[in-house]
Specification:
Blueprint: H1 12-31, E1 43-44, E2 50-51, H2 53-69, E3 74-77, E4 81-83, E5 89-97, H3 99-103, E6 110-117, E7 120-128, E8 133-138, E9 143-147, E10 153-154, E11 167-170, H4 174-177, H5 182-191, E12 194-196, H6 200-208, E13 214-217, H7 222-225, H8 228-234, E14 238-240, E15 253-256, H9 261-268
Parallel strand pairs: 3-5, 11-12, 11-13
Antiparallel strand pairs: 1-2, 3-4, 5-6, 6-7, 7-8, 8-9, 9-10, 13-15, 14-15
Helix pairs in contact: 1-2, 6-8
């Protein structure tokens, strides 16, 4: 279990912040039972993306915990869709963000737990189970990082303002092709000092902790980025869609240290 939350943040939103951290860690650790084993089959969803028993069990457990603790809250998850609620809160969860990495035995997958209040992202947790790294945030209370679930330190984006000295990360290059934006990828990659496909939630964690300058997603769903937006912003960065709108609903995203953001947005525009 994690150490006590910094500055007694567990009480935020009637305990939802502390619950989000606990659920992300416990669900993420449950996926390790299957990681790098032969004990699961890979199914293909209607969009051809993979899913495993690890994804399903982790999300079902989170849903059960939320239905017990916050029965009035809505829930949206990647694997089991939407459950309505009458409160102002909505939980948006992705039990394994980076299932392709998971099934390949690559430790860069994440468990994402986000909370919106009145439709705006307010709490975010990005947990990397196989590396035991986590970054958490609540709007107005900062972003915090821990490795090995030891002491918390403030998570802060880098101060680099020149992308030619920075790291650009993305999840998969061919997703740019799927929106006819390969030239946009090429422009950003050419402008950056280093380009790597250390993507999904891990890429955003790298940005939030100052190890990468920008993460670009050509195609995302709300469960991919609901946790990300408060983490990036509370770490001092900026999260928007490709048009510069701060939204998790428009199907694409850019998370950066803020200093290179406008430069990257300009390169993502069609020519």
């Amino acid at each position: 279990m994690p150490p006590p939350l910094p500055q007694n943040l567990s009480s935020i939103d009637d305990g939802r912040f502390g619950t989000a951290v606990r659920l992300a860690i416990s669900a993420g650790q449950s996926t390790l039972r299957y990681f790098r084993t032969n004990g699961f089959q890979v199914e293909r969803k209607s969009d051809k993306s993979p899913v495993t028993i690890a994804d399903k069990e982790a999300e079902q457990w989170i849903r059960h915990e939320l239905e017990t603790a916050y029965a009035g809250d809505a829930i949206l998850g990647e694997e089991f869709g939407e459950a309505g609620g009458e409160s102002e809160y909505r939980w948006i969860i992705d039990p394994i963000d980076g299932t392709k990495s998971f099934i390949s035995g690559v430790p860069l997958y994440s468990t994402l737990v986000g909370v919106t209040r009145h439709g705006k992202p307010s709490i975010g947790v990005i947990y990397i189970p196989a590396l035991d790294e986590i970054v958490i945030a609540a709007v107005g209370h900062g972003a915090w990082y821990s490795q090995g679930l030891s002491d918390w330190t403030r998570a802060r984006v880098s101060q680099q303002s020149d992308l030619s000295e920075g790291l650009f990360v993305t999840s998969q290059v061919d997703t740019f092709d799927r929106r006819n934006a390969r030239t946009a990828f090429d422009r950003v990659a050419d402008a950056a000092y280093v380009t790597r496909t250390w993507g999904d939630g891990y890429g955003y964690l790298l940005v939030a902790t100052g190890r990468a300058e920008v993460m670009v997603d050509p195609i995302v769903n709300p469960w991919d980025v609901a946790a990300v937006m408060p983490v990036i912003e509370e770490a001092g960065g900026r999260y928007t869609d490709w048009d510069g709108v701060p939204s998790i609903q428009t199907g694409n995203g850019v998370g950066s240290n803020g200093r290179v953001h406008d430069h990257v947005l300009a390169m993502l525009k069609p020519t």
